[in-house]
Amino acid sequence: MNSKVILLVEDNPDDVELTLRALKKSNILNEVIVAQDGVEALDYLHGTGKYAGRDVNAKPQLVLLDLKMPRKDGFEVLRNLRSDERTRLLPTVILTTSSEDRDKVESYKLGANSYIRKPVDFQQFVNAVQQLGLYWLVLNEAP
Amino acid sequence: MTLKTKFLILLIAFTLIPVVLFGGVAYEQARDILQSVRIAELNALADLKKDKIETFFIERELDISAIQNIRVIQANLPVMSALRDPRHPLSVKAEADLDSRLVHLMETHGYLDIMLMDKQGRIVYICNKSHATQFGRRLAGLGTFEAAKQAIVFSDIIIPGASGDPIEIIGAGPIRNQRGEFIGVAAIEIDMGPVYRTILNNPGLGRTGEALIVRKEGDSVLFLSPLRDVPDAALKKKAAFTDAVAYPAQKAALGETGSGVTLDYSGKDVLAAWRFLPHLRWGLVTKIDANEAFAPASRLRTIMLSIEAVMAILCVIAALTVSGTITRPLRSLQHGAAAVAEGNLDHRVGTGSNDEIGVLSRDFDRMTEALALDRAARIRSEEEVKALNEELRHNVRQLEESNKELDAFSYSVSHDLRSPLRSIDGFGLALMEDYGDKLDDKGRDYLERIRNATHRMSRLIDDLLNLSRMARFEMKREPVDLSAIARGIAANLGKSRPERRAEFIVADGLSAYGDGHLLAVVLENLLSNAWKFSEKTPRTVIEFGAVLHNNETTYFVKDNGAGFDMAYADKLFTPFQRLHRDAEFAGTGVGLATVKRIINRHGGKIRIEGEPGKGATVYFTLS
């Protein structure tokens, strides 16, 4: 049983569903908070808006961040994360459909810890998530 | 050297100099001729005078001879000399006898006097009664008298004491009686006037012409006649033989005969002729100043010099004029050239003259016109080029816009198309896993097909994106080590399926000049294809090499896989065209199209050969 939270920032409900399913299939039982766009994500992290009053010190162990989102996209969130002292070291994995080099470069530039392409093949996706979980939640020592 | 100078030199060399030379020669010739003529004249005159004078004195000699034979003298001389008293009646008679004979003689011959002297030299008879004071005068001892005792002699010239009296010369000779005994001397006083007149009368000899008589006296020359420059030179002026003047006089006095150009008694240059008169031992000289003698030649020279001066001036004028007529148009031509060189193509030189320069100027203007037309044409084509470039830039901008749109398009494709695919596949799998047992075989089969279809579509999208990216990619040009890349790909392929028996033969040192990334894509595609299509072959051999033919390198990737029917070869490079079913060999059919596009962008060519069951070989070149 793990009380550490995974923050999933994803606007596509299908992808949300599939990711959750994949996590479950990988035996990753952490609580998953879903933010549907950048604004919600930042609200959660900063304890503002929808999540006003939340204890911001209770930081998630891992952020799975999509890039293409309405209102505030992944880059903005990332920028925001990394410029805030509280969230600067937060492990953030970009999970996106884009295979564009420039997105990859930009993500790393802005301080993402990792960049994963969402494969179409769901089985592959499950494998990826499994490895993700294994690495970030178990192996990796959080800052 | 300017044209002016050249012309001047030419003119002077070919006109003035010849004229000067001619003038010099003419002058010399004239002088020579004049000299000859004048000398001849002088010689003739000298001879004439000599003859005249000699004749005169020969006549006087004859006169004296005649006198010697006068009986009256022979008879009366002794009487007069014995009596010595002119008043004695016998003397008076004797004198009267003599007078009757001699006065007539004296007057007809123009003698100044006829005298008789006795053996002792006393004058005993004077014919010219105005000289009566001379009576009784003794002349003994005088050279002339003594010499006259033996033969007829002439004395020296005698200058009268009183002015107005004529210069005279005495001719004397012995008187002998019937028995041949010397009884005395007879003398005639000869008026030298005629002689001098002969000498001094020189018509036609010119202004400076003169004749003179001289006599040797000791080591000097004594001048016996008046000289033009020294009117009283007679018996006064002397010139020593050692003097550097009076050469003609010297020579004449020394008895020489001759003529030539020499210095006279004043040191002037003269033409002279000299003769010797042996009778009197006189020298005779005729002379004329060289200046006067050569005057015509000098005049000629002056004329020549004037002509030459005028010619020189004319030469200069001609040179200036001619050079002007040449240099002026030349200069305007030069200005024209300078103007044209600076870009002014409207400048016209224009020359109406018909000479070569005029023709040149008109041709020059034609050339300028041609240049102007040329320039106009050039400017037009430059503007065309500019317009074309503008169009080109415009098109490039449009292309770039297009590309940007394509970029954006691909971008959205990569995200937006894949998402639904992922959902389809994901939920399909979820459906399979969670509710698969509730489905029959057919249902599960259908689900399987759905999932496969989405996978295919995803690959297609990826390949399409790649294909379009290959077209937009900004190509670099650098040396690329193809052997290294091929070996890397071969290693990866081998590792992906280690259990396969496959051999990769990669030639060493294969390199090319092009885009490394794109060429890697080419090799990746070709080697993966070779790897894929020889899956079913027990022992896979894949070779990457090159052949050099006609200075062109042709690379090849050869496999011993499934091969294909050459009849369909041209379809292979078309996107999505496949010659095998997906069940046989998975693939979207885009790989070769991508490879072809990259090869094209490098300016190369690609072709493929194959044989069913034996394998395929892809040949390509890069420019």
Give a written overview of the molecule.
The complex is a heterodimer of chains A (143) and B (623). Chain A is of the alpha/beta class. Chain A has one domain: Response regulator (Rossmann fold, 3-Layer(aba) Sandwich), CATH 3.40.50.2300. Chain A contains 5 helices and 5 strands, in the order E-H-E-H-E-H-E-H-E-H. In chain A, helix 1 (13-25) packs across helix 5 (122-139) and helix 2 (38-46) packs parallel to helix 3. The two termini of chain A are 21 Å apart. With 623 residues, chain B is an alpha+beta fold. Among the domains of chain B are: 69-195, Beta-Lactamase (2-Layer Sandwich), CATH 3.30.450; 349-472; 475-621, Histidine kinase-like ATPase, C-terminal domain (Heat Shock Protein 90), CATH 3.30.565. In chain B, 53% of the residues lie in helices and 19% in strands. Chain B contains 13 helices and 18 strands. Chain B has helices at residues 3-68, 71-83, 89-109, 143-148, 192-200, 247-253, 290-293, 295-341, 356-435, 441-472, 482-496, 516-533, 591-601, and strands at residues 113-118, 123-126, 153-158, 168-176, 182-191, 210-217, 220-223, 238-240, 258-263, 269-277, 282-289, 478-481, 502-506, 511-514, 540-549, 552-559, 606-611, 615-621. In chain B, the strands form 4 sheets. A 6-stranded antiparallel sheet of chain B has the order 8-7-6-11-10-9. In chain B, strand 10 (269-277) and strand 11 form a beta hairpin. The longest helix of chain B has 80 residues, at 356-435. Chain B is rod-shaped, with a radius of gyration of 74 Å. The interface between A and B is medium-sized, with 19 and 21 residues.
CATH topology of chain A, by name, is: Rossmann fold
How many structural units, i.e. domains of chain A?
1
**How much of the residues of chain A is beta strand, in percent?**
15-25%
Our count of helices of chain B gives: 13
- State the secondary-structure class of chain A: alpha/beta
Spatial order of the strands forming the largest sheet of chain A: 2-1-3-4-5
The CATH superfamily of the domain at 475-621 in chain B appears as Histidine kinase-like ATPase, C-terminal domain
